[in-house]
Design goal:
The protein is mainly β. The chain has two helices and 19 strands. Strands 1, 4, 5, 7, 10 and 12 form a six-stranded antiparallel beta sheet that branches. A six-stranded antiparallel beta sheet has the order 2-3-6-11-8-9, with no helix packed on it. The longest helix is centred in the N-terminal third of the chain and has 20 residues. The protein starts with a helix and ends with a strand.
Length: about 280
């Protein structure tokens, strides 16, 4: 009897421990501290009306973000657009994350692994993904997909196509699927308001405060008009992009180096055998 009670107690304690350690991760695009509204460039700048922060692949709060072509700079625009999702999924959002296009091109057609304009994450176990969104165009039916790269796990579609057609759907991700990337993307312009992952810990690598991937070896930073590439351990390719996405400088170095740039904001990508890094720097 004592052994049976001990066994049952162990099960209860293990269940409680598992519940405590299974976290819920929420990406709420109305929280400005995590998702600041996008910059509106000067009227004289020949770019889209609103400029996205996300011109290159990055990770924000363990959510991977991959933009579209460099000529399309409005993916990930965060701007105000109130939405009230009714019961039983009550949620009021004041800002949206705009997809501004499909996760696949006309040439590729629908693919389970998106090639542009998508979000991704990994988790340490089976989990439930819940997504709040609405169509990005009046009178147009839109769909958001959740896939594991080989099959669709779940999808949600705006039924009426009206601009007030709010959609909430869930995707049940298995432990095997969670071991790889879980992709979130749409078939066209969609507005994301909230994403919630429950039942597991999100494990997508963080880029850190300076925008660098933690596993990369080289470091990139600026001081005045000089940009420094340090801790170079092998041949490293360095690409420098202007904030509009235009490549302004590209070279390969096998040792620490520095170079100067005109005043402005740049995105610097470095790639070597040790890994890749992407950093946004200010040159003044």
């Amino acid at each position: 009897m004592k052994r049976k009670l001990l066994y049952l107690t162990t099960i209860v304690l293990f269940s409680a421990f598992s519940t405590i350690n299974a976290q819920t991760t929420v990406w709420n695009f109305s929280i400005a501290a995590d998702w600041p509204p996008s910059v509106i460039p000067p009227a004289t700048t020949p770019v889209t009306p609103q400029e996205s922060y996300y011109l290159t692949e990055t990770v924000v709060n363990k959510l991977g973000i991959v933009p579209g072509p460099s000529t399309v700079k409005n993916f990930g625009t965060v701007n105000q657009s109130n939405a009230v999702f009714p019961s039983p999924n009550d949620f009021t959002g004041t800002y949206r994350f705009q997809m501004n296009g499909a996760g696949y091109t006309q040439a590729t057609g629908f693919v389970f692994t998106p090639v542009q304009r998508y979000l991704y994450f990994t988790a340490d176990d089976a989990c439930t993904v819940k997504i709040w969104f609405k169509t990005g165009s009046n009178n147009s039916v839109r769909t958001i997909f959740v896939t594991d790269g080989t099959q669709t796990i779940a999808s949600g579609t705006s039924n009426s196509g009206g601009n007030t057609d709010f959609v909430v759907f869930t995707a049940n991700v298995t432990a095997a699927q969670a071991a790889g990337k879980i992709y979130i993307f749409g078939d066209a312009a969609n507005n994301l308001y909230k994403i919630e992952v429950s039942g597991a810990n999100v494990t997508t690598p963080s880029l850190g405060v300076d925008g660098f991937k933690a596993d990369a070896a080289s470091n990139v930073f600026s001081n005045g008009k000089l940009v420094f590439v340090s801790n170079v351990k092998s041949d490293t390719k360095v690409d420098v992009y202007g904030i509009s996405g235009v490549l302004v400088k590209s070279f390969t170095t096998g040792s620490d180096t520095s170079f100067d740039l005109n005043t402005g904001v740049y995105v610097v990508k470095s790639k070597s055998a040790e890994g890749e890094k992407t950093a946004k720097i200010l040159v003044n």
